[in-house]
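Researcher: Let's do a round of design. I'm pasting the structure tokens now; please hold your answer until I've finished.
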């Protein structure tokens, strides 16, 4: 693979000389990913085939990247053109990746998200004023095991869907992915959900209104999952029979009594 077009980027950003470029496997054809190894480090380039997917809140991601939180750092402070498409550069987080989590890993993930939310809420309040009734801020908006990498710590990656919203949606996302295989035993799902909230609150306390919004946020995630599953069937990524099994599980989620 010719390295010259990448060397222009790394020279401009003072990231060292390009050693190797690897195109990464990706289940999202709308985003092309390259692992860029240089003499100074390893980076992840995302090229947005669908430019609607370029993260909107890059200023927030830049500020988040200046913290010591275990999150993937953004390198470029604004998008740039590469092969006539919008592109961004991030650090490449090396470590163990996941398709599924144990309950202990979900609980640890809740703490990582809570730490991010502490920063997010403070950042949001400086721009919009403090909200005493409910916790608002910039959420990851796609919290699931596949967006974590285990290195020395558990790191949250892939902030393409970041948005300004109720913080509890990220918590509901953890509950969604953690309970989806426990729905034949509702007590087990309920106990898991409560453990996630306890883990989160060991870092950041929930307001009374936050707790009221968790179930509506969970219902919103279920609806999004219904829609996304339908798209996967249309693209023939999954069979209709597999989609039907998912729908059956999704319909059970509202019966989980979290509190």
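Researcher: That's everything. Go ahead.
Model: Designed sequence:
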């Amino acid at each position: 693979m010719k390295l010259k077009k990448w060397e222009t980027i790394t020279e401009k950003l003072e990231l060292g000389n390009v050693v190797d470029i690897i195109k990464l496997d990706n289940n999202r054809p709308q985003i092309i990913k390259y692992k860029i190894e240089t003499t100074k480090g390893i980076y992840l380039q995302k090229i947005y085939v669908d430019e609607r997917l370029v993260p909107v809140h890059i200023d927030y991601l830049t500020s988040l990247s200046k913290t010591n939180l275990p999150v993937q750092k953004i390198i470029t402070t604004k998008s740039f053109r590469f092969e006539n498409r919008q592109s961004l550069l991030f650090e490449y987080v090396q470590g163990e990746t996941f398709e599924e989590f144990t309950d202990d890993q979900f609980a640890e993930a809740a703490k990582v998200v809570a730490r991010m939310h502490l920063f997010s809420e403070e950042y949001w309040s400086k721009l919009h004023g403090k909200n005493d009734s409910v916790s608002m801020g910039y959420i990851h908006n796609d919290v699931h095991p596949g967006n974590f990498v285990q290195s020395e710590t558990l790191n949250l990656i892939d902030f393409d869907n970041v948005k300004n919203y109720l913080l509890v949606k990220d918590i509901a996302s953890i509950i969604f992915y953690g309970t989806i295989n426990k729905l034949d035993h509702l007590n087990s799902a309920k106990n898991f959900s409560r453990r996630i909230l306890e883990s989160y609150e060991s870092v950041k306390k929930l307001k009374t209104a936050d707790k009221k919004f968790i179930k509506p946020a969970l219902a919103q995630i279920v609806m999004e999952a219904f829609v996304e599953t339908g798209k996967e069937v249309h693209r023939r990524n999954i069979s209709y029979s597999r989609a039907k099994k998912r729908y059956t599980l999704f319909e059970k989620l509202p019966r989980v009594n979290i509190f």
